Amino acid sequence: MWSVYNIVCLFLIVCSYVNCASILKSPEIENENIAIDSSYLLNDEEFEIPDDEVADHVRYSPERVNLIKCKQYHQISKVVNGRDAKPREFPHMALLGYEDSDQILWECGGSLISEKFVLTAAHCLRNKNGNTIKYVRLGDLDIKSNTDNASPQQFTVKKTFIHPSYKSPNRYHDIALIQLDKKVKFTKYVIPACVGLSTDLNGTNPTVAGWGLTRRGGDPANILQTAPMAYVSANVCRKTYPKSFALTRGIDDDLMICAGGGTNKTDTCQGDSGGPLQIINQSYDFGAFSEIVGVTSFGRSCGFVPGAYTRVLPHMPWIREIVWSYSFKSAAARTNS
Ligand SMILES: *[C@@H]1O[C@H](CO)[C@@H](O)[C@H](O)[C@H]1NC(C)=O
Ligand SMILES: *[C@@H]1O[C@H](CO)[C@@H](O)[C@H](O)[C@H]1NC(C)=O
Ligand SMILES: *[C@@H]1O[C@H](CO)[C@@H](O)[C@H](O)[C@H]1NC(C)=O
Q1: What is the pLDDT of residues 169-216, one digit of tens each?
Q2: Is the bond preceding 169 in cis, omega lying within 30 degrees of 0?
Q3: b/e 97-129 (16+ beta carbons within 10 angstroms → b)
Q4: 329 Cβ contact list (under 8 Å, min separation 6)
């Protein structure tokens, strides 16, 4: 974590915070054209966005920070992948672990969306035996192998944030955030994805990713799986999921996305609960990046019918407040002390 940037910065913060920020990146960050910035490279393997760059964002709205952060993460992924980033490599995929008797059960998925936060489903904060989530693993590819081309980092959970409108067993607002016990080391295997930038999903091609864990505690698929999905309209989806005890208003199109099913019966089984429904956002001049648009929430009979995903966009005010004002506050606290 300690880098030459921290040292330079610490020195400069003492004399002037403004100088410090301008050395690392010109304040012209408002200009959308950010060149490839390999200054995030700590060594051949690790990347870091210096803390003071977050401090620089104190003057921006959480919405603006969300965009700036997306660009920074994209910078890293571009340094890693070269010009044609391959966001489908899922460096944001997280595995969630529960301590059950003497073992850790990896039973849900999630997505890294910042230096310290993982997005998942609210129902994933506990497993079916009632154990609370305790571990998060990032950067893994093959759970069982140590020789796969991956570099896992394991964290414990510092704090969880469940959406205030989630009322189990109801499925609405099935979304939660996990704060990790320490900052993530960005490597080519671990880079956050963006959230909340697409207001219109029409024309995008979503994919799911996950280890296809069985909630029955059986063996997971060892290697990260991914599958293309197709959106299914709310009206069609309602045929599969009518109003019920856990779905009192039925499928709510504003809060949920339905996808998959149909003829590709393998599709919907592959995403774990809590894992991402993602698109490649092509809209920037700096190239494609992964954006999480849904969180795997519930499904039935794996594959033949669509699955339901919690829409990320309507939950963005809540996400931004926790994820980005956390960065603000900690950075402001450091600057003030
Ligand atoms: C991609 O991100 C930009 C952010 O500026 C947004 O305007 C756009 O709608 C996004 N989505 C797609 C599918 O391009
Ligand atoms: C999606 O886009 C297509 C082509 O641009 C258009 O014909 C269609 O009406 C759109 N669908 C929705 C639901 O907006
Ligand atoms: C089925 O898979 C194909 C390619 O594998 C994909 O293009 C298509 O969108 C999928 N259909 C559904 C309904 O998910």
Answers
A1: 999 999 999 999 999 999 878 899 999 999 999 999 998 877 665 443
A2: yes
A3: bbebeeeebbbbbbbbbbbbbbbbbbbbbbbee
A4: none
What spacing in Å lies between the alpha carbon of 150 and ligand 3's midpoint?
Answer: 28
Ligand 2 contacts (CB < 6 A) are 202-203
Q: Where are the alpha helices (DSSP H) in the chain?
A: 4-15, 17-24, 51-55, 62-81, 234-240, 316-336
Atom index in ligand 2 nearest the CA of residue 202 equals 1
Q: Which tokens in the block code for residue 106?
A: 């990896």
Best of 229, 257, 258, 265 for a ligand 3 pocket test (most atoms within 8 Å of beta carbon): 229
Pairing label, strands 194-195, 289-298: parallel
Ligand 3 nearest-atom number relative to CA 228: 6
Residue 20 in this model has a pLDDT that exceeds 60: no
Backbone angles phi, psi at 118, to 5 degrees: -120, 135
- 242 Cα distance to chain centroid: 30
Cα–Cα–Cα angle for 329, 335, 336, nearest 5°? 85
Contact 319, 177 (CB under 8 A): yes
